[in-house]
Amino acid sequence: MSEVLLPQPYLLFLGDTTEPGYAKTAFGLRDWAGERCIGEYACQGATVSTGLPFLTPEQAYAAGARSMVIGVANSGGYIPFTWHAALLRAMEAGLDIISGMHARLRDFDVLREAADQLGRKLIDVRQPPAGIPIASGAPRKGKRLLTLGTDCALGKKYTALALARAFSNRGIDATFRATGQTGILIAGGGIPMDAVVADFAAGAAEMLSPEADANHWDVIEGQGSLFHPAYAGVSLALLHGSQPDVIVVCHEPGRKHVLGHPGYEVPGIAETIDLALRLGSRTRPSIRCAGVSLNTAKLDEESARRLIAWESERLGLPVADPMRGGASFDRLVESCLA
């Protein structure tokens, strides 16, 4: 896994996004790399905001920004034509462009030609390393935790980052392992699992979390959902290749349908735990679920507290919102390390 050297600070680009779930890259950078984010910029029609100051590319460059990051992770990872003018304006203002999309920046003639003329960098981070092996399935030393979700974009990355930080705060040797473009931008390295050829995806997960000291924890960012009609393959590859000792299942209360697939209902937490343990036991027979992470961002403090307590009693497991912390999160951390 190569380290990613990126021009910083960032201006976060939100495109013309109207669905907050598709702006998870921008929100992730705001929340976990806020010191590197100068502000946000968007096209006309966008309704999503990170809450950072709205700056034109010229204003952002004057404030110290040195790149504009595409903060959108839309379905399919495409770069629409309607964004080109904003990307060109950013380059003309002096900013390099960083993208985590499936589409490659240099594949667009107008962007490539402008970058070459202006001396700007076009940086795609959603590129897997060369030489990924087919998974061996062989056991390896070290401890591993994998976050799984009932759907996309509901807290797997945030949960993994929060747990890795909590482990480190307790003096435990722990590493956050990024598996998506946002995590890679935050961590400075990782493997974009959804860009790996399917036959090598479980091998990429093995490569991402290699054999380590017996007391070292790799906290691995989950992707997709085992029930997702489009992305279950990457979720299963991560589960088999990571061989996690522990899983934490992530869920957003109140979400009824799979993001971007309204014809599919979001599965239940217990159902997700059961399937994950059955499938994960193929490569890690001792796999266990340490608890549940709830994304309660849409609830007030008291409603979140009651729901967390109710779900914990119902499931018989520690349940917490890592972003709220508190005693419930401490119990989840302790369960992970038990």
Plain-language structure description:
With 338 residues, the chain is of the alpha/beta class. The protein folds into two domains: 10-124, 3-Layer(aba) Sandwich (Rossmann fold); 143-337, Rossmann fold. Helix content is 33%, strand content 17%. It is built from eleven helices and 13 strands. The chain has helices at residues 24-32, 57-62, 84-92, 109-118, 156-169, 181-187, 201-208, 232-242, 269-280, 301-315, 326-337; strands at 10-13, 37-41, 67-70, 96-99, 122-124, 143-149, 174-177, 217-220, 246-251, 257-258, 261-265, 288-294, 319-320. A six-stranded parallel sheet has the order 7-8-6-9-12-13, sandwiched between helices. A five-stranded parallel sheet has the order 2-1-3-4-5, sandwiched between helices. Helix 1 runs parallel beside helix 6. The longest helix has 15 residues, at 301-315. It is globular. It starts with 9 loop residues before the first strand and ends with a helix. The mean pLDDT is 96.
Feature tags:
338 residues, P-loop_NTPase, Rossmann fold, 2 domains, alpha/beta, DgcN-like_C, DgcN-like, DUF1611 domain-containing protein, 11 helices
Span between termini? 30 Å
What name does CATH use for the topology of the largest domain?
A: Rossmann fold
- Counted by DSSP, the helix tally is 11
CATH-defined architecture of the largest domain: 3-Layer(aba) Sandwich
Q: Rounded to an integer, what's the Rg over CA atoms?
A: 20 Å
**Mean pLDDT across all amino acids:** 96
> What is the CATH homology-level superfamily of the largest domain?
P-loop containing nucleotide triphosphate hydrolases
Q: Identify the CATH class of the largest domain.
A: Alpha Beta
